[in-house]
Amino acid sequence: MTLRVIPGPQNRHFTERGFKTFSSSIYQVTPQSDRIGIRLEGPGIERRPDVEESIISEGLLSGAIQVPGNGRPIIILNELVTGGYTKIATVITADLIKVAQLKPGDQVRFEPISIEEAHSLLREQERRIDDFKNLLQSL
């Protein structure tokens, strides 16, 4: 499964090679995943040597992708949590439904896109939902 992401908010905490690893590798969902986060196994994401593994805890949005000290990404789900790990990217809203369906053993990869493309994809998804609602109302 491909998940489209917007880079940031701390993507500059990672090396160019680290971000390339993140955006070109396949990761596997681990059994340690739960309703708070999807833990992934795969290549470690290299952090810049002058950047700490942890940051001051802050609120997280669904779809935020944290990278703890082991370099393996965690996709945050719907629970209200705070986090002190750097966030390399965020899954776009239009793809969050895909994240909610992941189960242990599934494989994912990340595709960075622009914020403009993410907005366009969300508007298209909302239009399809409205079309479906209108169809149901006409029955």
Describe the 3D structure.
With 139 residues, this protein is of the alpha+beta class. It has one domain: Beta Barrel (Cyclophilin). The chain contains three helices and eight strands; from the N terminus they run βαββββββαβα. The chain has helices at 16-24, 96-100, 115-138; strands at residues 2-7, 27-29, 37-41, 54-59, 64-67, 74-76, 82-91, 107-112. A seven-stranded mixed barrel has the order 1-7-5-6-3-2-8. Strand 2 and strand 3 form a beta hairpin. The radius of gyration is 16 Å and the shape is elongated.
Topology:
Layout: E1 2-7, H1 16-24, E2 27-29, E3 37-41, E4 54-59, E5 64-67, E6 74-76, E7 82-91, H2 96-100, E8 107-112, H3 115-138
Parallel strand pairs: 1-8
Antiparallel strand pairs: 1-7, 2-3, 2-8, 3-6, 4-7, 5-6, 5-7
Summarize the structure.
With 139 residues, this protein is of the alpha+beta class. It has helices spanning 16-24, 96-100, 115-138, and strands spanning 2-7, 27-29, 37-41, 54-59, 64-67, 74-76, 82-91, 107-112. It has a single domain, classed as Cyclophilin (Beta Barrel), CATH 2.40.100.10.
User: In angstroms, what separates the terminal alpha carbons?
Assistant: 34 Å
Level of helix content? 25-40%
Please work out how many helical segments DSSP would assign.
3
Reported by name, the CATH topology is Cyclophilin
**So what's the overall shape?**
elongated
What CATH first level would be assigned?
A: Mainly Beta
